[in-house]
Amino acid sequence: MAQVVLENVYKSFPPRKGEKLVVQNKFPQNDLDGSTLERQDQINILRRINLTIADGEFIVLVGPSGCGKSTLLRLIAGLEVMTGGNIWVDNRLINELPPKERDIAMVFQNYALYPHMTVYDNIAFGLRRRFSSQKTLKEDSKEDQTTWRENILVGLTRQLPPALRYISAKEQAVDRRVKDVAQLLQIESLLSRKPKQLSGGQRQRVALGRAIARNPQVFLMDEPLSNLDAKLRAETRSQIVKLQRQLGTTTIYVTHDQTEAMTMGDRIAIMSAGMIQQVAAPLELYNHPANCFVAQFIGSPPMNFIPIEFHAPLLVNHTHFRFTLPEVWASALQQYDGQTLILGIRPEHFSLSVPATKNLPVQIELVENLGNDIFLSVKTSNLDAPDAKTQSLQVRIPPDKIVRLGEQIWLSLIPEKLHFFDPETQLAIFPQSY
């Protein structure tokens, strides 16, 4: 177990021939030490990544494809070279260390099992190499010669029946560890099989077993469940969480699936365009998103955004509705008097209501009945001004509510569940009580 610290990490790639560079954001060109980290002639993948992961913590990196989360994982593992910054593991700077010396185990998306080896040998492979490396450093020349002979005997008899194999002390230690891990993952009956004889879920457990067997300081997991079906993914997800709690190993988990992120992580780091947007506990992200991107990315269906005009002290004005906010918003929104703001509201924070000035009239365009919930796709409508600009919204209602396609309904907004964002910076505005 170990604390992991990412300090001002940058990563850039040179463009391919003919590839055009697009500057997405403006950032300082120089780091604190004056070295050029973000260059206009490079494709900047990661920018200013600062993150501290506590000893034994399970943290999830989540974001859309191309946001840099897998690249960040590969930098920690040593499979990519940083453009700038520092990575510390257990107070040890690992920037220049090769992957084998970082004491980090990685589980890949495609399992990366050796197809010609049995499950037993796949799990034992890293252990044998590690033990051999440790003995080479510690033993004198006589012991080295003994180890060399033992390795030959082990290799020559490995394919023989178990009763005829030569078992060295090192191999006995490997055998105990492999069987302990197999029991932990409930794959004892699979040890003699090869990967082609396993299902997707079984292969994933073997990949996990190979990582667990080494007992590393840090686990890195790069979308390990993406190749599994929905049911198996849910089962394996819970198994990974239980294993991590049992082992207590610091774990960094990459996914694009917000359900995995919300249900697995102690904390979640939301990434976009190579930058960390917010790091917080799952419910903190859901209830208090730092900006529009986080608010829309976390939650299914995503948060709705409605442009409104704010008038001090507490009046919200829109083409289709008007209402007064709770007193807690007075000081936070005072500077925005007479300006346009973005009102954010999650689909479940609408409720079916009656015609009123404070309520929003909409027309139902799509009904998705999931049994435990009903999702509605609606568009705003105004009976007095049918030609007014419309907006599409997502609404979540209880399954006992009966609605019909094309029906005109009225929605009330729960005032305590509203979010506001600055239209220029996209940053959240929090009420005084927050």
Describe what this molecule looks like in 3D.
This protein is an alpha+beta fold. The chain has three domains: 4-103 and 265-290, Rossmann fold, CATH 3.40.50.300; 119-249, 3-Layer(aba) Sandwich (Rossmann fold); 301-429, OB fold (Dihydrolipoamide Acetyltransferase, E2P) (Beta Barrel). The protein is built from ten helices and 21 strands. A hairpin with a 2-residue loop joins strand 4 and strand 5.
Give the termini distance in whole angstroms. 34 Å
Please count the beta strands (DSSP E, at least 2 residues each): 21
Percent of sequence in beta strands: 25-35%
Indicate the radius of gyration in whole angstroms. 28 Å
Query: Helix proportion of residues, in percent?
Result: 25-40%
Largest sheet: 6 strands, mixed
By CATH, the superfamily of the largest domain comes out as P-loop containing nucleotide triphosphate hydrolases
Low-confidence stretches: 24-36, 135-140
Q: What is the CATH class designation of the largest domain? A: Alpha Beta
CATH third-level topology of the largest domain: Rossmann fold
Sheet/helix structural class:
alpha+beta
- Morphology: elongated
Mean pLDDT: 87
Whole-number tally of structural domains: 3
- Give, in spatial order, the strands making up the sheet with the most strands: 6-7-8-3-9-10
Number of helices: 10
CATH architecture of the largest domain: 3-Layer(aba) Sandwich
